[in-house]
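Sample entry was shown:

___
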Amino acid sequence: MNENQGTFRDVYLVDGCRTPFLKAQGQPGPFSASDLGLLAARELLLRHPLEPYHVGEVITGSVMPSCDEVNISRQIALRLGCGHRVPAWTVQRNCASGLQSLDNAFQDIRTGRHDIVLAGGVEAMSRSPLLFNQKMVAWFAKFQQSRSFGGHLKLLPQLRPSYFAPVIALLRGLTDPIINLSMGQTAENLAYRFGIDRQTMDAFAHRSHQRLEASVESCYFNKEIMTIYDDKGNFYDADNGLRRDSSAEKLAKLKPFFDKPFGMVTPGNSSQVTDGAAFMLLASADAVKKQRLPVMAKVVDCQWAGVDPAQMGLGPAHAIASLLTRQKLQLDDIDYWEINEAFAAQVIACIRAMDDEDYCKSELGLEKPLGSLDEEKLNIDGGAIAQGHPVGTSGTRLVMHLNNILQRKQGKYGIASLCIGGGQGGAMLIERITEEQG
């Protein structure tokens, strides 16, 4: 489709696997991020006639690994049995880290650097650390520098109760230091700009739970989600953020969280803090033939965009517009969409922006609106509001599930997209491979 694509190799999605997404319950979850990554990656490789050392590299997206998980991708690769010679590296693009890993795998295969890449994302948000504040850190530094017992005693009276106030890394990480706004506050900005009321947000959130419940009942996630066991013998075989009793009435009772007391963004119409991991196998045509691998879809293209950090949720609209323009496609050419539900207001704003003539001309540089996105093609099995949003993982989950939807619905094209904290957006276009193409 792109005149320059003839110089590159085709890149195929072979398969994908993920753990259940486990909602944070106010204390550290049962699995570390590297444990989750290992479980998902191992299950994926066991499905195919591959040894771990057949993989050319391992790329993992992760935003907040623990202090024991530096270059968490290398740890996963070694524990997986890839061996010392298989390189592994970790990428961080906030909410789209899992999509970034797939894009890097795509680029490395299409340019001939590798034939098979294991790429995905991991996050254990429930285990995000509590940190000492700067006053406590400064006091500790003086304490360490003092060499005598008397010196230590003199420093003790300098301790103040305020020094023990922790820095919550998760909340700090979800706040943009450039504009000093949390991600939820940027969603409030979009709600105001596009006239999105509370009822519309809550209706969107309720629909996410309804769609997820219907898809679970239809067993649409059976191939995608593996069962995992903790060290106490408990097992987890499904996303546990689903609220089967969700209703518009219950959602309406929740209070604003990010802009108290007058805002409209609540925990009910926002994504959930979650632990989870997802991995996919990508391969060249030569590797598919040599290793006798199945082929489900082809990665066509990927696009990244930057936007005003104060309106970071509009990133998908910008990435999607550039992607469609380059590929000479229209909105209606895309059969199914997966747009991450960071916030209901954010997804709705993207839909409205792409159909707004002034926005498309002034912000996207288009002569006319992209058009109206058919919401019956969007997140048809629910999204992050119901499933959860383990930040480093979600990009991989979106592409994986979009791939499965295209197989189930016999669609041709699908786009997965996310907004990104800090004011960015990413989008990946995939094409289902038919028997004739295979």
Observations:
- The chain has 15 helices and 16 strands.
